Amino acid sequence: MKYVGLQSQISRNNFKSILLxxxxxxxxxxxxxxxxxxxxxxxxxEETGLGYSVINESFVQTAPFVVIVVGIWFVVAWYxxxxxxxxxxxxxxxxxKKNKRVYNLTENLCISRGLTMxxxxxxxxxxxxxxxxxxxxxxxAITLSRxxxxxxxxxxxxxxxxxxxxxxxxxxxxxLIVSIIFVGIFSFITEIAIRSVMTTRxxxxxxxxxxxxxxxxxxxxxxxxxxxFRFALSRKREYLADAGAAELTKNPLALASALRKVSADxxxxxxxxxxxxxxxxxxxxxxxxxxxxSIFGNIFATHPPIEKRIQILEQF
Length: 316
Known about the structure:
The protein is 67% helix and 5% strand. The protein is built from twelve helices and four strands. Helix 3 (100-113) crosses helix 5 (154-170). The chain is elongated and about 70 Å long.
């Protein structure tokens, strides 16, 4: 695969970040309007007709509150994402004195590109995996599993670190963080709606049931569309990070060798969130393929096939 220049990829990801920041709120507001449309349609009679003025008035009154709540949610998640991801993955700061090898490899790569040294974390798991996270120089971090550090030689480990550094350079991590936050909002709304439906199953209030079902319908549509947005984030980011690592280390075969070892055991027990899983160098969970995934294959995958990545690196 022809490598795309770092500046080109940075520009693309910055544009995608802006697009996501615009698209998700617009999607949410569109669903709010759709909710009032469905609700009004549910109560429409031949005499009253479908009152768009009522729909628009309800939307205008509600939209500011939705924007404020989502805005607060986004700001809190934006500034606390590092601690949230660390708690999900079980990562902790890697001690420098006991892990000089890792720090030396990382610092040498950063010096070669004039990069600010990211924080380094570890997941105490014998499996092999790694990910990068953060939104700016103060929060950028590289996290390695214990297995990655213990089972890779210096060239392989350097290549993996270079891969994660390329994600940081390309601003892939910031783009994914934005995606994770917004998809999380729709996931939460959908979960609340489902629980509301379950708790009102026995009620005799048909109107109450109808409103809850409408909320559930809108929430599910929102979750589905936001998930499509997430999958729309090109899986080429992994190919580009592989190519970036090859450029940084001048040793594509080292990364190919590392990925071959990773493919044998990438499973991180602490990771259950599908959203966080997309940050890793290879999908870290053993979850069974969903119904859609089994039908459409890799269309709904967060990572390209690792075998194909290895093949490309070996031909680099």
